[in-house]
Amino acid sequence: MSDTIDQYDVLVVGGGPAGLAAGEAAARQGARTVILERQNEIGYPIHTSGGSWISDMRALEIPAHLYHPINTVFFVSAHREVAYHYDPAVACVVDVRGLYQHLAGRAITAGAAMRMRHTVEQTLIEDGRVVGVTVKNHVGERLTLRAPVTIDASGFSRHVGVRTEMGQAYHRYGYGAEYDLYAPNYPQDEVFLIMGSSYAPSGYAWAFPRGNGRVRLGVGVIHPDSEDDARRFLDTIIRDLPQLSERFQGASPIEYHTGLFPAEGPVERFSRDGLLLAGDAGGHGSTLVGEGIRYAMYSGQMAGRVAAAAVKANNASAAYLSRFDKQWRARFGREMDVSYQVNKRIASYGDAQWDDALGLMKRLTPAQVAQFMHGDYSAKLVLSILARNPGLLATGGKKLFDLILERINKPALQTAEG
Ligand SMILES: Cc1cc2nc3c(=O)[nH]c(=O)nc-3n(C[C@H](O)[C@H](O)[C@H](O)COP(=O)(O)OP(=O)(O)OC[C@H]3O[C@@H](n4cnc5c(N)ncnc54)[C@H](O)[C@@H]3O)c2cc1C
Protein backbone atom coordinates (compact mmCIF):
# COMPACT_ATOMS: atom_id res chain seq x y z
CA MET A 1 0.00 0.00 0.00
CA SER A 2 1.35 3.45 -0.91
CA ASP A 3 1.80 5.86 2.00
CA THR A 4 0.18 8.61 -0.05
CA ILE A 5 -3.31 9.57 1.01
CA ASP A 6 -5.24 11.71 -1.44
CA GLN A 7 -7.94 13.86 0.12
CA TYR A 8 -11.04 14.93 -1.81
CA ASP A 9 -14.52 16.18 -0.96
CA VAL A 10 -16.36 13.61 -3.07
CA LEU A 11 -15.17 10.23 -4.38
CA VAL A 12 -17.17 8.71 -7.23
CA VAL A 13 -16.73 4.98 -7.85
CA GLY A 14 -17.45 4.19 -11.51
CA GLY A 15 -17.37 6.22 -14.73
CA GLY A 16 -20.69 5.10 -16.23
CA PRO A 17 -23.58 7.53 -16.82
CA ALA A 18 -24.43 7.72 -13.09
CA GLY A 19 -20.86 8.34 -11.95
CA LEU A 20 -20.06 10.83 -14.68
CA ALA A 21 -23.23 12.83 -14.04
CA ALA A 22 -22.56 12.70 -10.28
CA GLY A 23 -19.00 13.88 -10.80
CA GLU A 24 -20.11 16.78 -12.96
CA ALA A 25 -22.85 17.83 -10.53
CA ALA A 26 -20.61 17.67 -7.44
CA ALA A 27 -17.76 19.53 -9.13
CA ARG A 28 -20.13 22.23 -10.40
CA GLN A 29 -21.08 22.93 -6.79
CA GLY A 30 -17.41 23.48 -5.98
CA ALA A 31 -16.65 20.08 -4.41
CA ARG A 32 -13.16 18.65 -5.07
CA THR A 33 -14.27 15.54 -6.90
CA VAL A 34 -12.58 12.49 -8.38
CA ILE A 35 -14.15 9.79 -10.58
CA LEU A 36 -12.48 6.35 -10.36
CA GLU A 37 -12.99 4.01 -13.31
CA ARG A 38 -11.53 0.53 -13.46
CA GLN A 39 -11.59 0.20 -17.27
CA ASN A 40 -9.08 1.65 -19.75
CA GLU A 41 -11.71 3.71 -21.56
CA ILE A 42 -14.94 5.49 -20.73
CA GLY A 43 -17.78 3.72 -22.55
CA TYR A 44 -15.88 0.46 -23.04
CA PRO A 45 -16.80 -2.35 -22.97
CA ILE A 46 -20.38 -1.56 -23.97
CA HIS A 47 -23.00 -3.42 -21.96
CA THR A 48 -26.13 -1.56 -22.96
CA SER A 49 -28.28 -1.05 -26.05
CA GLY A 50 -28.83 2.67 -25.81
CA GLY A 51 -32.61 2.89 -26.27
CA SER A 52 -33.86 6.17 -24.79
CA TRP A 53 -36.08 9.22 -25.23
CA ILE A 54 -35.49 12.46 -27.07
CA SER A 55 -37.25 14.61 -24.44
CA ASP A 56 -34.87 13.28 -21.76
CA MET A 57 -31.79 13.75 -23.91
CA ARG A 58 -32.85 17.36 -24.38
CA ALA A 59 -33.59 17.81 -20.67
CA LEU A 60 -30.13 16.40 -19.92
CA GLU A 61 -28.58 18.75 -22.51
CA ILE A 62 -27.17 15.96 -24.69
CA PRO A 63 -26.17 17.21 -28.18
CA ALA A 64 -28.44 15.87 -30.93
CA HIS A 65 -25.59 14.20 -32.84
CA LEU A 66 -25.26 11.72 -29.94
CA TYR A 67 -28.68 10.14 -30.42
CA HIS A 68 -30.47 8.64 -33.41
CA PRO A 69 -34.24 9.30 -33.76
CA ILE A 70 -36.71 6.44 -34.29
CA ASN A 71 -39.99 6.90 -36.17
CA THR A 72 -41.57 3.45 -36.12
CA VAL A 73 -41.82 0.94 -33.29
CA PHE A 74 -42.90 -2.63 -33.98
CA PHE A 75 -44.05 -5.00 -31.22
CA VAL A 76 -43.94 -8.64 -32.30
CA SER A 77 -45.34 -11.71 -30.49
CA ALA A 78 -45.67 -15.33 -31.64
CA HIS A 79 -48.68 -14.59 -33.91
CA ARG A 80 -49.15 -10.83 -33.88
CA GLU A 81 -47.46 -7.61 -34.87
CA VAL A 82 -48.41 -4.02 -33.94
CA ALA A 83 -46.69 -0.94 -35.34
CA TYR A 84 -46.77 2.66 -34.11
CA HIS A 85 -45.54 5.58 -36.13
CA TYR A 86 -44.15 8.79 -34.59
CA ASP A 87 -43.50 11.97 -36.50
CA PRO A 88 -41.73 13.76 -34.96
CA ALA A 89 -39.81 10.94 -33.30
CA VAL A 90 -40.03 10.55 -29.51
CA ALA A 91 -37.68 7.60 -28.97
CA CYS A 92 -34.00 7.38 -29.88
CA VAL A 93 -30.94 5.14 -29.72
CA VAL A 94 -27.91 6.81 -28.21
CA ASP A 95 -24.31 6.57 -29.35
CA VAL A 96 -23.31 4.93 -26.06
CA ARG A 97 -19.56 5.52 -26.20
CA GLY A 98 -20.02 9.03 -27.61
CA LEU A 99 -22.57 9.89 -24.91
CA TYR A 100 -20.46 8.59 -22.02
CA GLN A 101 -17.35 10.36 -23.30
CA HIS A 102 -19.38 13.55 -23.69
CA LEU A 103 -20.45 13.20 -20.02
CA ALA A 104 -16.81 12.67 -19.06
CA GLY A 105 -15.89 15.89 -20.87
CA ARG A 106 -18.60 17.73 -18.97
CA ALA A 107 -17.38 16.39 -15.63
CA ILE A 108 -13.82 17.44 -16.42
CA THR A 109 -14.97 20.90 -17.56
CA ALA A 110 -16.83 21.28 -14.26
CA GLY A 111 -13.56 20.56 -12.43
CA ALA A 112 -13.74 16.82 -11.62
CA ALA A 113 -10.59 14.70 -11.90
CA MET A 114 -10.86 11.42 -13.80
CA ARG A 115 -8.63 8.49 -12.95
CA MET A 116 -8.74 5.71 -15.52
CA ARG A 117 -7.77 2.12 -14.81
CA HIS A 118 -8.21 2.75 -11.09
CA THR A 119 -10.04 -0.19 -9.53
CA VAL A 120 -11.67 0.43 -6.19
CA GLU A 121 -10.93 -2.45 -3.83
CA GLN A 122 -11.67 -1.80 -0.15
CA THR A 123 -13.99 0.62 1.56
CA LEU A 124 -12.62 2.47 4.56
CA ILE A 125 -15.03 2.69 7.48
CA GLU A 126 -14.26 4.59 10.70
CA ASP A 127 -16.75 4.86 13.57
CA GLY A 128 -19.45 3.45 11.31
CA ARG A 129 -18.84 6.11 8.65
CA VAL A 130 -17.55 5.54 5.10
CA VAL A 131 -14.45 7.75 4.83
CA GLY A 132 -12.81 6.59 1.62
CA VAL A 133 -11.57 3.71 -0.49
CA THR A 134 -8.42 1.93 -1.49
CA VAL A 135 -7.62 1.67 -5.17
CA LYS A 136 -5.30 -0.33 -7.40
CA ASN A 137 -4.04 1.97 -10.14
CA HIS A 138 -2.82 1.49 -13.71
CA VAL A 139 0.72 0.61 -12.62
CA GLY A 140 -0.40 -1.80 -9.91
CA GLU A 141 0.13 0.55 -6.96
CA ARG A 142 -2.36 0.59 -4.13
CA LEU A 143 -3.55 4.05 -3.06
CA THR A 144 -5.79 5.42 -0.37
CA LEU A 145 -8.32 8.11 -1.21
CA ARG A 146 -10.35 9.80 1.49
CA ALA A 147 -13.41 12.06 1.34
CA PRO A 148 -16.38 12.91 3.54
CA VAL A 149 -18.73 11.53 0.85
CA THR A 150 -18.30 8.52 -1.45
CA ILE A 151 -20.80 7.89 -4.25
CA ASP A 152 -21.07 4.26 -5.32
CA ALA A 153 -21.89 4.40 -9.04
CA SER A 154 -20.27 1.06 -9.85
CA GLY A 155 -23.37 -0.30 -11.59
CA PHE A 156 -24.65 -3.84 -11.19
CA SER A 157 -21.76 -4.92 -8.93
CA ARG A 158 -22.65 -2.30 -6.26
CA HIS A 159 -19.03 -2.64 -5.24
CA VAL A 160 -19.17 -0.37 -2.19
CA GLY A 161 -22.84 -0.92 -1.34
CA VAL A 162 -22.54 -4.68 -0.86
CA ARG A 163 -19.51 -4.18 1.41
CA THR A 164 -21.20 -1.63 3.65
CA GLU A 165 -24.46 -3.29 4.67
CA MET A 166 -26.45 -1.47 1.99
CA GLY A 167 -28.22 -4.58 0.76
CA GLN A 168 -27.19 -7.85 -0.83
CA ALA A 169 -25.90 -8.52 -4.33
CA TYR A 170 -28.79 -8.50 -6.83
CA HIS A 171 -30.63 -11.79 -7.02
CA ARG A 172 -33.15 -11.07 -9.81
CA TYR A 173 -31.57 -9.61 -12.92
CA GLY A 174 -31.74 -9.38 -16.69
CA TYR A 175 -28.86 -10.95 -18.60
CA GLY A 176 -28.52 -9.49 -22.07
CA ALA A 177 -26.48 -10.60 -25.10
CA GLU A 178 -26.22 -8.41 -28.16
CA TYR A 179 -24.68 -8.13 -31.59
CA ASP A 180 -23.84 -4.72 -32.98
CA LEU A 181 -24.10 -5.31 -36.70
CA TYR A 182 -23.32 -3.51 -39.88
CA ALA A 183 -26.67 -4.04 -41.60
CA PRO A 184 -26.87 -2.06 -44.85
CA ASN A 185 -30.47 -3.14 -45.64
CA TYR A 186 -32.01 -2.45 -42.24
CA PRO A 187 -34.33 0.61 -42.27
CA GLN A 188 -32.66 3.01 -39.87
CA ASP A 189 -35.85 4.48 -38.41
CA GLU A 190 -37.47 1.20 -37.24
CA VAL A 191 -37.18 -0.39 -33.83
CA PHE A 192 -38.41 -3.93 -33.05
CA LEU A 193 -39.41 -5.28 -29.63
CA ILE A 194 -39.99 -9.04 -29.78
CA MET A 195 -41.68 -11.19 -27.15
CA GLY A 196 -42.40 -14.91 -26.86
CA SER A 197 -40.82 -18.27 -26.11
CA SER A 198 -39.06 -18.73 -29.45
CA TYR A 199 -36.85 -15.67 -29.10
CA ALA A 200 -36.88 -14.37 -25.51
CA PRO A 201 -38.55 -16.44 -22.81
CA SER A 202 -39.15 -14.26 -19.70
CA GLY A 203 -37.77 -11.18 -21.37
CA TYR A 204 -37.69 -9.66 -24.81
CA ALA A 205 -35.50 -9.23 -27.85
CA TRP A 206 -34.79 -5.96 -29.64
CA ALA A 207 -33.42 -4.46 -32.83
CA PHE A 208 -32.19 -0.89 -32.29
CA PRO A 209 -30.74 0.98 -35.29
CA ARG A 210 -28.23 3.67 -34.38
CA GLY A 211 -27.34 5.34 -37.68
CA ASN A 212 -24.75 4.77 -40.43
CA GLY A 213 -25.96 1.24 -41.18
CA ARG A 214 -25.39 0.05 -37.60
CA VAL A 215 -28.00 -1.94 -35.64
CA ARG A 216 -27.95 -3.47 -32.16
CA LEU A 217 -29.76 -6.80 -32.03
CA GLY A 218 -30.12 -8.19 -28.53
CA VAL A 219 -31.91 -10.63 -26.27
CA GLY A 220 -32.54 -10.18 -22.55
CA VAL A 221 -33.67 -12.97 -20.24
CA ILE A 222 -34.67 -12.47 -16.62
CA HIS A 223 -33.01 -14.78 -14.09
CA PRO A 224 -33.92 -16.70 -12.03
CA ASP A 225 -37.42 -16.47 -13.59
CA SER A 226 -35.94 -18.28 -16.61
CA GLU A 227 -32.76 -20.35 -16.91
CA ASP A 228 -32.53 -19.87 -20.68
CA ASP A 229 -29.29 -18.51 -22.09
CA ALA A 230 -29.86 -15.23 -23.97
CA ARG A 231 -26.75 -15.80 -26.13
CA ARG A 232 -28.32 -18.80 -27.84
CA PHE A 233 -31.18 -16.79 -29.37
CA LEU A 234 -29.25 -14.18 -31.34
CA ASP A 235 -28.57 -16.21 -34.48
CA THR A 236 -32.02 -17.83 -34.32
CA ILE A 237 -33.73 -14.44 -34.47
CA ILE A 238 -31.80 -13.27 -37.51
CA ARG A 239 -32.41 -16.59 -39.24
CA ASP A 240 -36.02 -17.38 -38.27
CA LEU A 241 -37.97 -14.22 -37.51
CA PRO A 242 -39.31 -13.26 -40.95
CA GLN A 243 -39.53 -9.52 -40.21
CA LEU A 244 -35.85 -9.44 -39.26
CA SER A 245 -34.28 -12.05 -41.53
CA GLU A 246 -35.38 -9.88 -44.43
CA ARG A 247 -34.05 -6.67 -42.89
CA PHE A 248 -30.75 -8.27 -41.84
CA GLN A 249 -29.89 -9.58 -45.29
CA GLY A 250 -26.23 -8.90 -46.00
CA ALA A 251 -25.59 -7.99 -42.35
CA SER A 252 -22.79 -9.13 -40.09
CA PRO A 253 -21.90 -8.44 -36.44
CA ILE A 254 -18.82 -6.33 -35.76
CA GLU A 255 -19.21 -6.10 -31.97
CA TYR A 256 -20.57 -8.48 -29.36
CA HIS A 257 -21.79 -7.22 -25.98
CA THR A 258 -23.15 -8.78 -22.81
CA GLY A 259 -24.45 -7.18 -19.63
CA LEU A 260 -26.45 -7.48 -16.45
CA PHE A 261 -29.31 -5.27 -15.31
CA PRO A 262 -30.87 -5.35 -11.83
CA ALA A 263 -34.54 -6.35 -11.94
CA GLU A 264 -35.58 -5.99 -8.30
CA GLY A 265 -36.65 -2.38 -8.05
CA PRO A 266 -34.68 0.14 -5.99
CA VAL A 267 -32.66 -1.03 -2.99
CA GLU A 268 -34.06 -0.19 0.42
CA ARG A 269 -31.75 2.76 1.24
CA PHE A 270 -29.43 4.82 -0.98
CA SER A 271 -27.58 6.61 1.82
CA ARG A 272 -25.71 5.99 5.03
CA ASP A 273 -22.99 7.93 6.88
CA GLY A 274 -20.55 9.10 4.18
CA LEU A 275 -22.08 7.08 1.33
CA LEU A 276 -24.64 7.43 -1.49
CA LEU A 277 -25.64 4.82 -4.08
CA ALA A 278 -26.54 6.10 -7.57
CA GLY A 279 -27.64 4.51 -10.87
CA ASP A 280 -27.77 0.72 -11.11
CA ALA A 281 -25.86 0.51 -7.81
CA GLY A 282 -29.06 1.79 -6.17
CA GLY A 283 -31.44 -0.10 -8.45
CA HIS A 284 -32.44 3.21 -10.04
CA GLY A 285 -33.31 1.92 -13.52
CA SER A 286 -36.78 1.05 -14.74
CA THR A 287 -37.49 -2.68 -14.81
CA LEU A 288 -40.37 -2.22 -17.30
CA VAL A 289 -38.06 -2.86 -20.25
CA GLY A 290 -34.68 -2.70 -18.51
CA GLU A 291 -34.03 0.95 -19.17
CA GLY A 292 -31.44 2.72 -17.03
CA ILE A 293 -29.29 5.25 -18.88
CA ARG A 294 -31.39 8.38 -18.44
CA TYR A 295 -32.31 7.35 -14.90
CA ALA A 296 -28.63 6.81 -14.08
CA MET A 297 -27.89 10.36 -15.23
CA TYR A 298 -30.76 11.87 -13.22
CA SER A 299 -29.82 9.82 -10.17
CA GLY A 300 -26.15 10.76 -10.52
CA GLN A 301 -26.97 14.46 -10.81
CA MET A 302 -29.13 14.32 -7.68
CA ALA A 303 -26.51 12.36 -5.73
CA GLY A 304 -23.71 14.72 -6.81
CA ARG A 305 -25.65 17.79 -5.70
CA VAL A 306 -26.57 16.29 -2.33
CA ALA A 307 -22.96 15.17 -1.79
CA ALA A 308 -21.60 18.67 -2.53
CA ALA A 309 -24.22 20.27 -0.27
CA ALA A 310 -23.26 17.86 2.54
CA VAL A 311 -19.59 18.85 2.14
CA LYS A 312 -20.51 22.55 2.27
CA ALA A 313 -22.63 21.97 5.35
CA ASN A 314 -19.79 19.93 6.90
CA ASN A 315 -22.38 17.24 7.57
CA ALA A 316 -22.04 13.89 5.79
CA SER A 317 -24.26 12.09 8.27
CA ALA A 318 -26.84 9.51 7.23
CA ALA A 319 -29.56 11.96 8.31
CA TYR A 320 -28.26 14.69 6.00
CA LEU A 321 -27.52 12.42 3.04
CA SER A 322 -30.96 10.78 3.27
CA ARG A 323 -32.33 13.86 1.49
CA PHE A 324 -31.08 12.07 -1.66
CA ASP A 325 -33.42 9.12 -0.91
CA LYS A 326 -36.30 11.51 -0.37
CA GLN A 327 -35.68 13.52 -3.54
CA TRP A 328 -35.25 10.42 -5.67
CA ARG A 329 -38.33 8.66 -4.29
CA ALA A 330 -40.44 11.78 -4.67
CA ARG A 331 -39.49 12.02 -8.35
CA PHE A 332 -39.14 8.38 -9.40
CA GLY A 333 -40.49 6.17 -6.61
CA ARG A 334 -43.99 5.64 -7.97
CA GLU A 335 -42.82 5.15 -11.57
CA MET A 336 -40.25 2.52 -10.52
CA ASP A 337 -42.75 0.74 -8.34
CA VAL A 338 -45.34 0.45 -11.12
CA SER A 339 -42.67 -0.64 -13.63
CA TYR A 340 -41.49 -3.35 -11.26
CA GLN A 341 -45.00 -4.64 -10.59
CA VAL A 342 -45.77 -4.73 -14.33
CA ASN A 343 -42.43 -6.41 -15.11
CA LYS A 344 -42.99 -9.16 -12.52
CA ARG A 345 -46.35 -9.86 -14.11
CA ILE A 346 -45.35 -9.83 -17.78
CA ALA A 347 -42.10 -11.76 -17.20
CA SER A 348 -44.16 -14.92 -16.80
CA TYR A 349 -46.32 -14.36 -19.90
CA GLY A 350 -46.50 -17.27 -22.34
CA ASP A 351 -47.02 -16.92 -26.08
CA ALA A 352 -50.83 -16.82 -25.86
CA GLN A 353 -50.72 -14.06 -23.24
CA TRP A 354 -48.34 -11.99 -25.36
CA ASP A 355 -50.64 -12.44 -28.35
CA ASP A 356 -53.53 -11.19 -26.17
CA ALA A 357 -51.45 -8.30 -24.86
CA LEU A 358 -50.62 -7.18 -28.39
CA GLY A 359 -54.30 -7.48 -29.25
CA LEU A 360 -55.01 -5.03 -26.42
CA MET A 361 -52.17 -2.74 -27.40
CA LYS A 362 -53.58 -2.47 -30.92
CA ARG A 363 -56.39 -0.38 -29.48
CA LEU A 364 -54.06 2.20 -27.95
CA THR A 365 -52.93 5.36 -29.68
CA PRO A 366 -49.21 5.85 -30.44
CA ALA A 367 -49.14 8.63 -27.82
CA GLN A 368 -50.61 6.35 -25.14
CA VAL A 369 -48.09 3.61 -25.90
CA ALA A 370 -45.21 6.09 -25.76
CA GLN A 371 -46.44 7.54 -22.46
CA PHE A 372 -46.70 4.05 -20.94
CA MET A 373 -43.30 2.92 -22.22
CA HIS A 374 -41.76 6.16 -20.95
CA GLY A 375 -43.08 5.34 -17.47
CA ASP A 376 -45.45 8.30 -17.18
CA TYR A 377 -48.09 6.30 -15.39
CA SER A 378 -50.94 8.43 -14.24
CA ALA A 379 -54.55 7.79 -13.37
CA LYS A 380 -55.33 10.14 -16.28
CA LEU A 381 -53.47 7.87 -18.72
CA VAL A 382 -55.17 4.71 -17.46
CA LEU A 383 -58.60 6.34 -17.50
CA SER A 384 -58.09 7.80 -20.99
CA ILE A 385 -57.16 4.33 -22.25
CA LEU A 386 -60.24 2.81 -20.64
CA ALA A 387 -62.50 5.62 -21.89
CA ARG A 388 -61.50 4.83 -25.47
CA ASN A 389 -61.72 1.08 -24.91
CA PRO A 390 -64.33 0.21 -22.27
CA GLY A 391 -64.19 -3.39 -23.51
CA LEU A 392 -60.74 -3.73 -21.94
CA LEU A 393 -62.32 -4.06 -18.51
CA ALA A 394 -63.93 -7.30 -19.58
CA THR A 395 -60.64 -8.75 -20.81
CA GLY A 396 -57.31 -9.89 -19.39
CA GLY A 397 -56.20 -6.25 -19.31
CA LYS A 398 -58.35 -5.54 -16.26
CA LYS A 399 -55.96 -7.06 -13.72
CA LEU A 400 -53.06 -5.06 -15.06
CA PHE A 401 -55.01 -1.79 -15.09
CA ASP A 402 -56.30 -2.46 -11.54
CA LEU A 403 -52.77 -3.07 -10.36
CA ILE A 404 -51.45 0.11 -12.01
CA LEU A 405 -54.27 2.22 -10.57
CA GLU A 406 -53.74 0.75 -7.10
CA ARG A 407 -49.99 1.55 -7.14
CA ILE A 408 -50.55 5.03 -8.66
CA ASN A 409 -52.98 5.88 -5.89
CA LYS A 410 -50.48 5.06 -3.14
CA PRO A 411 -48.61 8.08 -1.77
CA ALA A 412 -45.12 8.24 -3.39
CA LEU A 413 -43.03 7.74 -0.25
CA GLN A 414 -45.21 4.95 1.03
CA THR A 415 -45.05 3.28 -2.39
CA ALA A 416 -41.29 3.45 -2.41
CA GLU A 417 -40.90 2.08 1.08
CA GLY A 418 -43.72 -0.42 0.98
C1 LIG B 1 -28.02 -5.94 -22.14
C2 LIG B 1 -28.47 -4.61 -21.59
C3 LIG B 1 -29.18 -3.74 -22.41
C4 LIG B 1 -29.58 -2.51 -21.89
N1 LIG B 1 -30.24 -1.66 -22.71
C5 LIG B 1 -30.61 -0.45 -22.26
C6 LIG B 1 -31.24 0.46 -23.12
O1 LIG B 1 -31.50 0.16 -24.29
N2 LIG B 1 -31.56 1.69 -22.63
C7 LIG B 1 -31.27 2.04 -21.34
O2 LIG B 1 -31.58 3.17 -20.94
N3 LIG B 1 -30.67 1.18 -20.49
C8 LIG B 1 -30.32 -0.05 -20.92
N4 LIG B 1 -29.70 -0.91 -20.08
C9 LIG B 1 -29.44 -0.50 -18.70
C10 LIG B 1 -28.25 0.48 -18.60
O3 LIG B 1 -27.16 -0.04 -19.27
C11 LIG B 1 -27.87 0.72 -17.14
O4 LIG B 1 -29.01 1.05 -16.39
C12 LIG B 1 -26.83 1.84 -17.04
O5 LIG B 1 -25.65 1.45 -17.69
C13 LIG B 1 -26.54 2.14 -15.57
O6 LIG B 1 -25.52 3.10 -15.48
P1 LIG B 1 -24.55 3.15 -14.22
O7 LIG B 1 -23.66 4.31 -14.42
O8 LIG B 1 -25.35 3.03 -12.98
O9 LIG B 1 -23.72 1.77 -14.30
P2 LIG B 1 -22.71 1.27 -15.41
O10 LIG B 1 -23.07 1.79 -16.75
O11 LIG B 1 -22.63 -0.19 -15.23
O12 LIG B 1 -21.32 1.92 -15.00
C14 LIG B 1 -20.62 1.48 -13.86
C15 LIG B 1 -19.14 1.81 -14.06
O13 LIG B 1 -18.45 1.49 -12.84
C16 LIG B 1 -17.23 0.87 -13.17
N5 LIG B 1 -16.81 0.07 -12.01
C17 LIG B 1 -17.42 -1.03 -11.51
N6 LIG B 1 -16.76 -1.49 -10.44
C18 LIG B 1 -15.70 -0.65 -10.24
C19 LIG B 1 -14.64 -0.62 -9.30
N7 LIG B 1 -14.53 -1.53 -8.33
N8 LIG B 1 -13.73 0.37 -9.40
C20 LIG B 1 -13.82 1.33 -10.37
N9 LIG B 1 -14.81 1.32 -11.31
C21 LIG B 1 -15.73 0.34 -11.24
C22 LIG B 1 -17.56 0.04 -14.40
O14 LIG B 1 -16.40 -0.29 -15.14
C23 LIG B 1 -18.51 0.97 -15.16
O15 LIG B 1 -17.81 1.83 -16.04
C24 LIG B 1 -29.29 -2.16 -20.55
C25 LIG B 1 -28.59 -3.05 -19.73
C26 LIG B 1 -28.17 -4.26 -20.25
C27 LIG B 1 -27.41 -5.20 -19.36
Describe this protein's structure.
This protein is an alpha/beta fold and 418 residues long. 34% of the residues lie in helices and 28% in strands. It is built from twelve helices and 20 strands. It has helices at 17-28, 54-59, 96-110, 234-240, 242-247, 293-312, 318-346, 351-361, 366-374, 379-388, 397-408, 412-417, and strands at 5-7, 10-13, 33-37, 51-53, 67-70, 72-76, 81-85, 91-94, 113-116, 119-126, 129-136, 142-146, 149-152, 173-182, 190-196, 200-211, 214-223, 252-262, 271-272, 275-277. The strands form four sheets. Strands 7-6-15-16-17-14-18 form a seven-stranded mixed beta sheet, with helices on one face. Helix 1 (17-28) runs parallel beside helix 3, helix 1 runs parallel beside helix 6 (293-312) and helix 6 packs antiparallel against helix 7. The chain is globular, with a radius of gyration of 22 Å. Mean pLDDT is 92; it is low at 412-418. Bound molecules: flavin-adenine dinucleotide. Residues 13-19, 36-39, 47-52, 119-120, 153-157, 159, 176, 178, 218, 220, 259-261, 279-281, 285, 290-294, 296 line the site of flavin-adenine dinucleotide.
